[in-house]
């Protein structure tokens, strides 16, 4: 019931969000229509519109001509043509919707700005090349000062001999290092000549016509410092009204380019995840200082400016590093301030000249590694020409600190990423779960959610041709998705069931005498059997479950897979005092865990307390039900959800871990996790399911008396405690590794692809 209520709440939030977006779009369109209809041009064009109604081919030709003229006038005839633009929210609303601070206006005085001081050497050197335009530089500096990054920075401004009298004002900004060129060197050479003066291990090249949003410098630095294979990272550029200017760039086979997502809604999921890109705009890029030095900075071949940032991206990849877009680094960019927008005059004229140079230099790479202009946009934006795209589908965004099923799905996606795949995740509840969604996006996983997904059937109808393989999770999710997948997508489908739902339901002690529960178990078996026959490969955590699948449906390809990846086991340590008590960690939204808690408190704990009075039990985990909360009393603690750090502290203090499950199916994460934390475990046959050989390292108790006796031995005997802790840690360390899971998934998908080929041949 709780799960149904959660889903209803999620659907209500989704509907409210969709209504909000629709209202905003309707209001802006109404305002635009009213303005348009009141204009002289609209009234003067009435005869042409009437002609277009009578002769549609005239209207079509006029629209194409108007688009062509506009692209020519704006300098976008051959380069940086954006994708089709969707409906926008009202002007200004977007900036507020993103939670951005208001624009810095009026222009701040230099005396009111101070660069942050850290008292330690800088980690990031911010280089801001300028040519006059002091007002914009002051705005840029003020945005950094208003929200200083956590990482220590220095800020260096170099004015390229602009002869602007106001440049001297910048020298009065405390903490700022101002360099004034005596002769004009151009943007590219100014950057190259100032970079050797930087003291940081990372360089942030920043246009002066930008405003840094809070956290942006930290977001770029964290991305680079966390991944040694990333050499260059770029920010998400926004227009002053909050709409998107660029979410990374695409360079097509002919050398033309897109500022991806130009003038679109930056809240869309397709712009909100870390991903490899062809290039990132030089308006705000961060690069490792040693990599910059080894490459010689920007190439003089592109003097004075334009395409030097794209060429740098190609050379970074050539050196063996990745070029990555960071959506959390939000930068307002006042485009065209430095060099204007006229591509036929001044420095801006080099845009076309240098594009030709870029195309000539990287022609071979473009022909073999880039798509034709405007084709396969999803693949192009991800640089996935030679990479497998895997779609993972579950009921919601996984919350790995809440339940074992979520940990499994996250482990699967981590293993898929480690294999070099691109991962897309579709939560069927369509909800963007705060914190958890962002964690996946920062890992490089696109999460499709909200009004932009338009529902799974619509999304897969559009994108199904770009998906190479599908991992489905849970029977109720598969029931919703399988028809759409088979209709719109030819990719092989692997189904992971987590456990045999019908077996778990039948194992409930009340199922034998409750017709409703028996009917529910029968329905679950019918559903699971249908899914087995429609998927290409079925996976379960244990060989016992695979044997059940084969007994029911011998023709189904079913595989056992170890679903968990754990960190290195806790090193051996001294046994804590017996007063550390007992710990049972579980997610109590799961009925078997509720039954286990009641069984332990009412049947096992009294037997322990008879011989060891005052033994403390902690029931630790999310979503405790009313029945579980009612167990709290002297000697029994019910904590509810705890953080990972708090959980580690509790494991370290506990004397014995217990897992008193009386029914359930599949491998139990709570069992494996307890052993990995170096706490000797006592469990039941249901808790030991799917873990071959566990009986050699762990007490497995058939009844309440045996369970209590095993716990008391571990409370009393330090030698036995240490032996069991070491043996259980070794057991986990041999089996629950990322490499083992990655290999198992690879094998499953190879088998699924062979099955899919046979299936498609039969249908043909």
Question: Explain this structure to me?
Answer:
- By secondary structure, the chain is an alpha/beta fold.
- The chain is 44% helix and 15% strand.
- The strands form 4 sheets. Strands 1, 2, 3, 4, 5, 6, 7, 10, 11 and 12 form a 10-stranded mixed sheet that branches.
- Helix 25 (669-676) links the parallel strand 23 and strand 24.
- Helix 15 packs across helix 28 (738-763) and helix 18 runs parallel beside helix 20.
- The chain is globular.
- Residues 1-6, 16-25, 73-91 and 342-346 have low confidence and may be disordered.
Write the layout of secondary structure elements.
Layout: H1 2-37, H2 40-44, H3 46-54, H4 56-73, H5 93-97, E1 124-130, H6 134-146, E2 153-159, H7 167-170, E3 176-180, H8 186-194, E4 202-206, E5 210-212, H9 216-226, E6 230-238, E7 244-246, E8 249-251, E9 257-259, E10 275-276, E11 284-288, H10 289-295, H11 308-318, E12 322-333, H12 350-361, H13 363-369, H14 377-382, E13 389-394, H15 404-418, E14 422-427, H16 436-442, E15 446-447, H17 456-463, E16 469-473, H18 475-488, E17 493-496, H19 501-507, H20 515-534, E18 537-540, H21 543-552, E19 558-560, E20 582-585, H22 591-611, E21 617-620, H23 626-629, E22 636-640, H24 644-653, E23 656-659, H25 669-676, E24 681-683, E25 699-700, H26 704-716, H27 718-735, H28 738-763
């Amino acid at each position: 019931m709780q799960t149904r209520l959660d889903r209803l709440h999620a659907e209500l939030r989704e509907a409210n969000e969709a209504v909000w977006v629709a209202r905003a779009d309707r209001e802006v369109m109404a305002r635009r229509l009213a303005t348009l209809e009141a204009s002289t041009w609209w009234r003067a064009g009435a005869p042409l519109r009437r002609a277009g109604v009578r002769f549609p081919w005239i209207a079509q030709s006029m629209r194409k001509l108007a688009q062509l003229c506009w692209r020519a006038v704006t300098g976008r005839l051959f380069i940086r043509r954006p994708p089709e633009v969707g409906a926008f929210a009202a002007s200004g609303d977007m900036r507020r919707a993103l939670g951005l601070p208001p624009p810095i206006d009026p222009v701040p005085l230099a005396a009111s700005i101070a660069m942050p001081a850290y008292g330690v050497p800088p980690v990031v050197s911010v280089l801001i090349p300028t040519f006059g335009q002091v007002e914009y530089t002051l705005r840029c500096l003020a945005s950094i000062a208003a929200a200083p990054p956590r990482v220590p920075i220095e800020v260096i401004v170099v004015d390229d001999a602009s002869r602007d009298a106001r440049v001297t004002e910048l020298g009065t900004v405390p903490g700022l290092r101002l360099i004034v060129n005596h002769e004009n060197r151009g943007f590219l050479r100014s950057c190259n000549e100032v970079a050797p003066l930087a003291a940081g291990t990372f360089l942030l090249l920043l246009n002066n016509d930008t405003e840094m949003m809070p956290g942006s410098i930290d977001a770029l630095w964290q991305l680079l410092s966390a991944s040694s294979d990333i050499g260059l990272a770029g920010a998400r550029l926004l227009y002053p009204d909050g709409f998107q200017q660029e979410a990374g760039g695409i360079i097509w086979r002919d050398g033309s380019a897109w500022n991806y997502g130009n003038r679109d809604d930056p809240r869309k999921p397709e712009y909100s995840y870390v991903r490899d890109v062809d290039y990132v705009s030089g308006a705000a890029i961060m690069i490792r200082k040693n990599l910059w030095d080894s490459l010689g900075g920007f190439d003089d071949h592109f003097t004075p400016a334009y395409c030097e940032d794209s060429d740098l991206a190609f050379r970074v990849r050539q050196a063996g590093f990745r070029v990555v877009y960071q959506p959390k680094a939000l930068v307002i960019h006042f485009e065209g301030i430095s060099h204007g927008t006229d591509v036929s005059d001044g420095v801006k004229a080099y845009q076309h000249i240098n594009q030709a140079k870029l195309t000539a230099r990287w022609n071979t790479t473009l022909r073999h590694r880039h798509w034709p202009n405007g084709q396969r946009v999803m693949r192009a934006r991800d640089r996935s020409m030679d990479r497998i795209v895997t779609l993972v589908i579950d009921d919601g965004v996984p919350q790995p600190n809440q339940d074992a099923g979520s940990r499994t799905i996250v482990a699967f996606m981590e293993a898929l990423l480690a294999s070099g795949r691109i991962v897309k995740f579709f939560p069927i509840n369509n909800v963007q779960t705060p914190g958890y969604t962002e964690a996946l996006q920062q890992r490089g996983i696109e999460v499709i959610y909200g009004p932009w997904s338009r529902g799974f059937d619509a999304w897969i109808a559009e994108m199904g041709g770009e998906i190479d393989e599908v991992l489905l999770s849970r029977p109720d999710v598969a029931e919703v998705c399988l028809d759409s997948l088979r209709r719109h997508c030819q990719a092989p489908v692997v189904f992971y069931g987590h456990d045999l739902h019908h077996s778990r339901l039948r194992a409930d002690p009340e199922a034998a005498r409750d017709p409703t529960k028996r009917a529910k178990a029968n329905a679950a078996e019918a559903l699971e059997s249908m899914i087995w026959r429609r998927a290409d490969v079925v996976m379960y955590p244990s060989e016992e479950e695979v044997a059940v699948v084969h007994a029911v449906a011998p023709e189904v390809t079913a595989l056992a897979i170890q679903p968990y990846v754990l960190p290195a086991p806790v090193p051996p340590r001294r046994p804590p005092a017996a007063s550390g008590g007992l710990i049972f960690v579980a997610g109590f939204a799961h009925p078997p865990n509720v039954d286990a808690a009641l069984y332990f408190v009412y049947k096992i704990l009294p037997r322990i307390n008879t011989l060891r009075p005052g033994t403390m039990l902690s029931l630790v985990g999310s979503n405790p039900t009313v029945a579980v909360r009612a167990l709290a009393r002297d000697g029994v603690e019910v904590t509810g959800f705890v953080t990972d750090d708090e959980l580690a502290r509790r494991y370290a203090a506990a004397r014995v871990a217990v897992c008193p499950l009386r029914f359930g199916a599949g491998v139990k994460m709570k069992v494996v996790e307890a052993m990995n934390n170096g706490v000797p475990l006592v469990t039941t046959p249901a808790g030991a399911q799917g873990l071959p050989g566990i009986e050699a390292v762990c007490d497995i108790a058939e009844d309440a008396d045996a369970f209590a006796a095993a716990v008391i031995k571990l409370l009393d005997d330090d030698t036995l405690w240490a032996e069991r802790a070491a043996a259980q840690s070794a057991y986990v360390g041999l089996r629950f590794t990322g490499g083992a899971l990655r290999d198992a998934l690879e094998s499953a998908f190879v088998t699924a692809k062979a099955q899919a080929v046979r299936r498609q041949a039969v249908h043909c």
